[in-house]
Amino acid sequence: MASERNPWIKSPAADAADFSLFQPDMTGYSGTTEQAKAGNSISHQSEGQNVLFLDSHVEFAKRSYCSLEDDNIFTRSTITGKGDPYGTAASTSTDEPANRKDSLLLHDPSAFGAVRTR
Questions:
Q1: Which helix (H) or strand (E) segment is 93 a member of?
Q2: Which one of 21, 57, 104, 118 is separated from 50 by 20 to 30 angstroms, measured CA to CA?
Q3: pTM of the model
Q4: What residues are paired with 14 via a beta bridge?
Q5: pLDDT by residue (tens digit) across 15-54?
Q6: 113: nearest Cα among 43, 14, 45
Q7: Cβ neighbours of residue 95 under 8 Å, at least 6 residues apart?
Q8: Which of 39, 62, 38 is nearest to 50 (CA)?
Q9: For residue 60, what pLDDT is reported?
Q10: C-alpha–C-alpha distance, residues 100 and 81, integer Å
């Protein structure tokens, strides 16, 4: 899988988003639409993100919990052996998925900020 930048990791273009503003708006969670959008990539004004899935299709996902079993692609799962719509915020590009069903997508914050010289 691939997607636009993880909002919880600082990048050359933006500071990390405030994870405390995020809450899924699905059954079992008490989030509003605006709280759910706070978990999206900033590339599209938090309306969603383009996601490339393993079967090679690309979709504009309006929520970051768009992976297998509603797993959040930008957070680390806190549920043993499963994905997690909420999870914990990724803080660095060295964070790792919690289990085999955790679809944690990261980016290298320094790779695009480097200045090349000849």
A1: none
A2: 21
A3: 0.86
A4: 11
A5: 889 999 999 999 999 999 999 999 999 889 999 999 999 9
A6: 14
A7: 76, 104, 106
A8: 62
A9: 97
A10: 7
